[in-house]
Amino acid sequence: MWRRGYASKPLPSEVTTISLSRILQEALSNVARHAKAQRVQISVR
Length: 45
Hints:
- The chain is mainly alpha-helical and 45 residues long.
- It has one helix at 14-35.
- InterPro entries: HATPase_C_sf.
């Protein structure tokens, strides 16, 4: 399956999507636990 838009790249596999979601979840948990930040900004490219 191919994404439509400005670039024609294959969509990430389900395994990749789940892995990235878990990495992001862990990163946000670490911010909440250790940095006690009031705001977090995430950029995905």
